[in-house]
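Table S2 (text version). Query chain:
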Amino acid sequence: MTQILLIDDDPSLHHLLVQYLEETGFSMLHAESGLAGLKILFEQRPQLILLDVMMPRMDGWEVSKRIRELTDVPIVFLTAKSDEASRLEGFRLGADDFVAKPFSFPELAARIEAVLRRTGKIVPSKKTGNIMVCGPFELDQDRRQATKNGAPLALTPTEYHLLEVLMKRTNTVFTQTQLVTAVWGPEYANDTGYIRRYVWHLRQKIETDPNNPQHLLTERGFGYRFVP
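Corresponding structure-token output:
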């Protein structure tokens, strides 16, 4: 699944845009400052960055300079500054596209896909019918069946549901309470022992080496994270 990092200091835009792009088929990361965005970029290595220009302390121009010192990841500027001089400055600093605020979410998604194709990056893993694709994993949500690299996974209904919840928000850290609530229901919120047991069972079936998991990771002191 293609991962996008949104760097913008507008929390309302974060919420709405992240929700829309995740429903479109992207995996989203977000930061509310340039420094936080650079840290996430270094740790997560997303395939594309949506970058606001007008931010306090470190504006989008400076962030883009720092990004280009690290990687050639595509950058799409989100900005109210759509004049020619600003656009030329952005392209000089390595921008791949500009989207002027305010913008429509469908247009932005189309521009993101165009940039990904043009730069040879991964195009989003979309849901085809009710089939969800995430890295080597594929879930047929109508048949409730899962495969890895095309090979069927013999999951119980609960294991399938747990994998489905994790795949819908890749690279997101879930607490044990969040997972047990999502899989079993809020009435089981205090029974986190369910999660530890089922994470162990699920790893036996989806990991090449369950003792050294590469997909279903433990974030000590926090919970679990799924990496495609």
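Notes on Table S2: Confidence is low (pLDDT under 50) at residues 124-128. The helical segments are 11-24, 34-44, 60-70, 84-92, 105-118, 157-168, 176-184, 193-206.
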